[in-house]
């Protein structure tokens, strides 16, 4: 019975750590959502390291992958602004 309680306590602690955005202090590797939708944190040996998704992709916290924006729920996170540096405007037509 004590072992079952210990295992449940460990799982509850791991869920609490993941939900508050802190890395576990052991050598567990995991990914956490970032405040910006196109970034995520990678936990390695208790350290939280900021990572970036490739261009035009957002971090999907349900799948732990960088994914197309249509597949990602960015509620509560910042959505990146795409600069209009490569837009070509044709002023020759009316």
TrEMBL record:
**InterPro entries, alphabetically?**
Chitin-bd_dom, Chitin-bd_dom_sf, Chitin_bind-dev_reg
* GO cellular component terms, semicolon-separated: extracellular region
The residues the entry assigns to the signal sequence are: 1-20
Q: Which SMART domains match?
A: ChtBD2
Alphabetic keyword roster: Chitin-binding, Disulfide bond, Glycoprotein, Repeat, Signal
Q: Where are its TM segments located?
A: none
Q: Name one GO molecular function term.
A: chitin binding
**All residue ranges annotated as the Chitin-binding type-2 domain in the record:** 20-76
- Put simply, this protein is called Chitin-binding type-2 domain-containing protein
Source species, please?
Leptosia nina
